Amino acid sequence: MNTTPRTHRRRTAVGAALVTVLAGAGLGLGAPQATAADPVSVGYTCTGPGAPSGVQSLQVTMTAPASVPQGGNADLSISVVTQLTVPIDVAAGSVTGEMTVNLGGAGSGSVTATGFTNPDAIPSGSTATLTGGTATAQLTTAGTTTFAPGDAAVHVFGVTVNCTVSGDAPVAAQTDVTSS
């Protein structure tokens, strides 16, 4: 298949726009299931072929269990929506990515959410939504553990764009860890 420089530039630009989309994270299932928190706005600066310049805002929705017993696992699910529109049609499942989720409050460290993709085709001129991001965090300290989006990587059309949180990411979800 011959790819003209123009087509390659358009795909790289689409990749950059979608990278900006992914820079989101989330949380999910677990003991009593909490409803998804409101989306939080997170600023990202991205680098790589075709990455957009400046800070890009992504809407990240995380869901976490309302509570887990001390030493238990919090299964997290994440989705991300970008404000950018894609310049060409993007086939379903052609974008993948991963994101760091930072633990705070009673928790510390981070976990990596994987499995992000675009389950549906994205028509040219539309914003991109990436869903399916999941991670599991073992919570060993009683108290409230918070979860915040961290750095992300997006892979599209053979291009990887790395995105770093610009400033501080807001807490997107939390789980109460009960003493055993």
What does this structure look like?
The structure is a single chain. With 180 residues, the chain is mainly beta. Strands 1-2-4-7-6-5-8-9 form an eight-stranded antiparallel barrel. It is built from one helix and ten strands.
Average pLDDT for all residues: 83
Shape: elongated
Cα(first) to Cα(last) distance is 60 Å
Secondary-structure element order, N to C? HEEEEEEEEEE
Strand content: over 45%
Q: Which stretches of 5+ consecutive residues score pLDDT under 50?
A: 6-33
Tally of contiguous helical segments: 1
User: What's the count of strands?
Assistant: 10
Main sheet: strand order: 1-2-4-7-6-5-8-9
Structural class: mainly beta
What summary fits the major beta sheet?
A: 8 strands, antiparallel, barrel
Provide keyphrases for this structure:
mainly beta; single chain; 1 helix; elongated; 180 residues; 10 strands
Quick summary:
The protein is mostly beta strands and 180 residues long. Helix content is 10%, strand content 52%.
How are the secondary structure elements laid out?
Layout: H1 5-22, E1 40-47, E2 55-63, E3 67-69, E4 72-85, E5 95-105, E6 110-117, E7 127-139, E8 143-156, E9 159-165, E10 173-178
Parallel strand pairs: 3-10
Antiparallel strand pairs: 1-2, 1-9, 2-4, 4-7, 5-6, 5-8, 6-7, 8-9, 8-10
